[in-house]
Amino acid sequence: MDAAWRRSWRPLLAAWAVLAAVALVAAACGGGGSAGAGGNTVQVSLQEYKIVVGGTTLTKGNSMQMKPGQVTFKVTNDGSMQHDFAIQGPGVDETNPQALQPRQSTSVTVTLQKGTYQVWCTQPGHKDLGMYGQIDVQ
Ligand SMILES: [Cu+2]
């Protein structure tokens, strides 16, 4: 091929390079986004004497709302004494949860159906001190 031919194609090749770079960036962003949306993880923070679920504080029986479907509760003990996270409702019976030391965490995956779920801490006296609430799934 002669030099003139190469010159005429150079701008087109440059354009293709830009397009390829844009596509790569878009793919990278898309992948990150779908990973975040696909993993339906909700942070749960155990404290004296409340349970914070996805930023909503549950204490002394108040309630919050969630959508049906599979959810992984990532439970962290952010308090200064031993706590745990029990949840009971339609199709879910996690009433003997793992006791967590301060700063320890665990994950609990459940499938929520429409209905009412009770969440609480089973450590002696903690429920009476406020560590319980309700999740209304609808
Ligand atoms: Cu507790």
Structural overview:
With 138 residues, this protein is α+β, with helices and mostly antiparallel strands. It folds into two domains: 1-38; 40-137, Sandwich (Immunoglobulin-like), CATH 2.60.40.420. Helices cover 26% and strands 39% of the residues. The strands form two sheets. The chain has a five-stranded mixed β-sheet with strand order 3-2-1-5-8, with no helix packed on it. It has a five-stranded mixed β-sheet with strand order 4-10-9-6-7, with no helix packed on it. The radius of gyration is 25 Å and the shape is elongated. The structure holds copper (II) ion (CU). Copper (II) ion binds next to loops.
Q: Overall pLDDT, averaged?
A: 84
The major beta sheet can be summarized as: 5 strands, mixed
Q: What order do the SSEs take from the amino end to the carboxyl end, as H and E?
A: HEEEEEEEEEE
Supply the CATH superfamily name of the largest domain. Cupredoxins -  blue copper proteins
Beginning-to-end CA distance, first to last residue: 68 Å
Query: Strand portion, in percent?
Result: 35-45%
Shape: elongated
Task: Briefly characterize the structure.
This protein is an alpha+beta fold and 138 residues long.
Describe this protein with a few key phrases.
single chain, alpha+beta, Immunoglobulin-like, 5-stranded mixed β-sheet, 1 helix, 26% helix, elongated, binds copper (II) ion
List the helices and strands and how they pair.
Blueprint: H1 3-38, E1 41-47, E2 50-53, E3 56-58, E4 63-66, E5 69-77, E6 86-89, E7 92-94, E8 105-112, E9 115-120, E10 132-137
